[in-house]
Amino acid sequence: MSNHLKSLAKLYGGFSNYQGTVSVGGKEWPISHAVFSNTKGRLTNKVSLALLNIISRLSRVHLVGNTAVPCFSQVENLEPWKDVHLRKDNPCGIYIINTFSGKIEGVPHYLSIPADPMMVLHIRAKWGSFDDYLDAFTSKYRVRAKKILKETDELETQEYMGSEIDDETLALIAGLLKKTLAGKMLTMSSDLASVLKNYIKSFGDNYRIRIYSSKGNPLGFIGFVLMEQSLTAMHIGFHTPEKQNMPIYQRMLYGLVYYAIENKLESVNFGRTAVEIKSCLGAVPVRNYFIALIRFPWIYAFSNMYKNIFYKPKEYTIRSPFKT
Questions:
Q1: Which of 69, 86, 201, 322 has a CA that sits 20 to 30 A from residue 120's CA?
Q2: Contact yes or no for 279/319 (Cβ under 8 A)
Q3: At what angle do helices 167-181 and 192-203 cross, to 10 degrees?
Q4: Cα–Cα dist 292/315, whole Å
């Protein structure tokens, strides 16, 4: 087993909702039960989320991978999964799989839900520097990029490897992450410090963070994983600086591009969300879906009705900054 696969196995096993593995297609896949939380501690939120978690456990909803690991849990080949939810030795009633295809042949009861695409920037071999990258932009996008860099020029950057992240730094980045996720429903533990700590323990110095500060005041951070010749953004947290329109989010994304070029990496996976902003950096979408394999027809019928009534796919525009 390669080092990065060992790190991933350790990461999955370090989450409190880890449920072991399931054998499919000659491979052991990590599974977890669905968990819901919120960073705000209101009593009504706590009660409703507690009920949702109880229902999740009772209905035996299992996720392949873990929602706290969004970029590494995709299943490429769905063929071996066609009957996994029907096995007599398998107590799970529903399997939720993150995959690149929206269809699975030969399964009578399944739901397919499009997810936001992964946004991936492929680093061109001829980009020897960040300036080469910007020179590949059309004048319109190059002007925009330089404007962002100028407006955030006052920001100071500190980079930490996993072994350099002490308890004080961990508390700082967990607090910034909490600000960004405030009020949102999470499909992972609300103990964000423990989530970050698990990444640090699992990946060691292949987990890095960059903290952006103004006049000694930390304003944001971005955490990423180095794996072979790629960089994957995992965590981002920031709060609105005094300059209300300072584009700190975009600056942190450009920082990953700079890092990748300087370290001669092949790609940057910016993850999901903010699709249009990331496409303006040259990232292209990698489509992915969530497929729910459902054992019981009545649960499928109810879930399908709920999806048809309430689910509305997001709309976004993919842009390209590069010259043709």
A1: 201
A2: yes
A3: 130
A4: 22
Query: Do residues 277 and 253 touch, judged by C-beta distance below 8 A?
Result: yes
Q: How far apart are CA 153 and CA 161, in angstroms?
A: 23
CA–CA dist 174, 180 (Å, integer): 10
Beta-bridged to residue 118, according to DSSP, are 286
Determine the Cα–Cα distance for residues 138 and 146; give it in Å rounded to an integer: 12
Nearest to 324 by CA among 153, 141, 196, 148: 141
Domain ranges, ordered by start, for the chain: 3-117+287-310, 120-284
Cα–Cα dist 312/255, whole Å: 33
Give the model confidence (pLDDT) of 180-215 as tens digits. Answer: 887 776 667 778 999 999 999 999 999 999 999 998
Element (H, E) at 1: none
Sequence-distant (6+) residues with CB within 8 A of 74 are 65, 98, 99, 100, 288
Q: Record the pTM.
A: 0.89
Helix axes 248-262, 139-151, angle to 10 degrees: 110
Q: What are phi and psi of 272, to 5 degrees?
A: -90, 180
Digit-coded pLDDT (tens) for 50-61: 665 666 666 578
Q: How far apart are CA 250 and CA 163, in angstroms?
A: 27
d(CA 204, CA 272): 24
